[in-house]
Amino acid sequence: MSIRTGYLFGCVLLLGACGSATENGEFVQSHSALSEREADAEEGSDDGDLYRDVTPDALGKSATVSPNPIVLKPRNAFFHDFGTNRRQCGTCHVESLGWTLTPEYTQSLPASDPLFVFDGSDCLAAGQPNADPLTNSTQMRSKANVRIDLPIPAGADFVLTSYADPIGCPNPPSASDIRMYRRPLPTSNTAFLSTVMWDGRENVNPPNNTLALIQADLEHQANDATLGHAQATAPLPAAKATAIRQFETGLFNAQQKVGSLKLDSHGAHGGADFLYSDTLPSFFIGINDVFTPGFTSTIFTLFSAWETNPPRNNAQAAAIGRGESLFNNRTFTIDNVRGINSSDPADADPINGSFVGSCGTCHDTPNIGNHSVALPIDIGITAANSVGDLDVAALPVYTFTQLGTGKTISVTDAGRGLVTGRFKDIGKLKGPILRALSARAPYFHNGSANDLSALVHFYNERFQIGFSAQEASDLVAFLQAL
Hints:
Layout: E1 3-7, H1 11-14, E2 27-28, H2 36-41, E3 50-56, E4 60-66, E5 88-89, H3 103-107, H4 133-136, H5 138-143, E6 146-150, E7 158-164, E8 178-182, H6 211-227, H7 238-249, E9 252-258, E10 261-262, H8 272-282, H9 304-308, H10 315-329, E11 332-334, E12 355-357, E13 397-402, E14 408-411, H11 417-420, H12 452-462, H13 469-480
Parallel strand pairs: 1-3
Antiparallel strand pairs: 2-5, 3-4, 4-9, 6-8, 7-13, 9-10, 11-12, 13-14
Helix pairs in contact: 6-7, 10-13, 12-13
């Protein structure tokens, strides 16, 4: 296989102004400055079937490969302005940042950047200018969170009974406007999605159990994002929605190097090439589903060789191998995960009571790490008072009451409940794809885990796993290598 390679260094500096916000690949990066790579190599070559961009990150280098030229110019619909506020899909989905955003990047942008208008601000209404993002875009600048405004659906079995808003927006939350703040999901590796958006609200083609149906969801989402985040005055032309979806589903992104350690060397299969050549051909919606016969908790096999025989004198590789083994093999008690085994019998979850599981119980897609079917769950990340020291103090807290029963729940994000209108779904969200984590801190849907150590600490506390300091460090090393 011939690989077309282009190197993008210092993308933050090369891409002048950014753009603005979406959740899963909707609109775009501005183009006041373009990289040398684009001018020289974007058209690719005729002698190969993969194109590659390699970008530096905090730990080493990540790579994006695609069977299509990775064109970062407006003639690519993903980087074209179809709206009224200068945003595009690439506004919130930057290649060098794991195809999403980071706080460091948002803090580097000028106040005039379109990222900060509308839902790139904490509170501002459509059309209201944002002259001071330092004051008005605290969530975007501190967590790279986009504001999501959703109503309680008509006919819902719950009502909003109280709220606390530390941000202090002048327009108070109401049943018609619940404000939440979420990280833009990466637009790479979307070929492995089983759910579109954190809350699955773009899974509009039931039963959403084939790749073709998920691809149709992605096109629907591209249009919704253009009308919403980019504030377009007309729907996205169908051909452009298809072009955006084709670009997204052709992007395969993963960590390529940690320091000088090549993650596809010495028998290992890290990096983006393996995603395309080996993981993609065997993937289907429902593969290795934890609720079907044949499930295996051996989710990741990228570094199997390093689990037993790491490169000599390479402590980093040895830690990665040990961390992969921990991810696959460490068992612990899974209790009261709403959507799997809620402690409330009225929720009618598939499992009754606590059981012994592993990381793969919720992250079952082989060598990808999301759930292979739509499985919105609540493990406590949306809780008003979460365990594990998650950073949620600046987020609004909403208390909802179920009609008829009087049950209440307090959350920082209503999640799936604002899609289905069911009290049992409040606070439930999907688990994202785990590849290319190093380029895109902070973590969880709201950026409440500042780094991977904080993420591992949350899981250790939530499920009382009992990781030693060495084991926690090894698991971080493994996650960094994805």
